[in-house]
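yo, S-layer protein is done. seq:
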Amino acid sequence: MRIQHILVAALMVAALTGPALAADKYLYGSPTLSASIAGTNEFTPGQEIALAVALKNSGLNTFKFVDPTAVARDDLPNTAKLVTAALGADAAPVTVKTDPQFLGDIAGGKSATATFTVKVAEGAAPGTYNLPLTVTYTYLSSAEQYGSDSIQYFYEEKTEVLPLAVTITPDLRVEVLAVTTDDLNVGTEGYVHLTLKNAGYETAQGAVARIARSGTSPVVPTDAAAYLGDFAPGETVDVTFKAAVTTDAEAQTYPLDVLVTYTDSDGDAATSKTVTLGIPVGGKTDFAVVSSGAVLYPGEKSVLEVVYKNTGAATVYNAQARISAIDPFTSNDDTAYLGDLAPGAEGTARFEMNVDADATLKAYGLDSEIRYRDALGSSRISDTMKVQVDLAQKTGSLVTNPVVLAVLAAIILGGGYYILVYRKKQR
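structure:
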């Protein structure tokens, strides 16, 4: 038993007096941060992008000491802790819409990515600009060990400003200086005249100006392209397009999109940013029957005169009125030429109408319409109008007509007077 106790005691003493496990102790090192843009760094004026910034820590621990009495440390000197990144604009023509980003800890040899929403200003001058990325972090500057079981850390906070280079490329920016229209009315086709300016910094090669329908706007382009050639910065051009207006529109201003396609200085196909402008639209072309109801007689062939008025907002050309003869009317001449009618002008149409002898005496409504050409020569047809015609019995004859009776009375009285005077002279 005594030998066993001695062996146990010997093992215990050996365990207490054996060598401790060694701990690594880094004496020198610190974070080294650098920033770069992930992806392209070229942007165009007016563009809004999600700018991904990669923050890399390339810091090294340059001296390591293995100390059998040292306590293992939780942090390394080259670790950037509690990293925060904030992107600024400085003198660059951009707006940063994202608040500072918290990235956590970045160990040596590792990286983290922060994403910022950036809007490039409209009309920004081309060039290369530096965006300041302000990075704030904490790192382990030193540590002191007390005894064999405790250690005190000393951290320092550091702020660095890292430049991020971005390039703003030149572009074509279309500015609309003037808008006028000719004969652009509801339900017709007319002209749209625009004065365009290249307000950007790019010379557009082989430029073509275009108009396009804006959403569900009733203004619909029918001749939508105009060739400009080379369109230099600051240059202005006058272009004309054709457009039609749907019949369900009103007399007001409607949107229309304008853009320019071209070849840029790199030889690539490009398109300017779309500009939406307001196009004034005139009222609908319309007509009205302004003559009073005509009176016709059964069994007779008569001339029906109808006066039409252009109540719309546009001049119509080569207008022709047409009337539809229904029972008891018939006509071999149901079309009449009115000519050109300006807004507010009137024209008289004459139609030969035959009325059946047994026609019912009442008021009738005959359908009538006007076919015309608009300012661009397109054929149009008006809405249907009603022409009122009253059928009446023709009254009076040679013995009942008041005028005829008056004439006869005058003749009789004159004859009687003549006879009376003649007889007196014979006596």
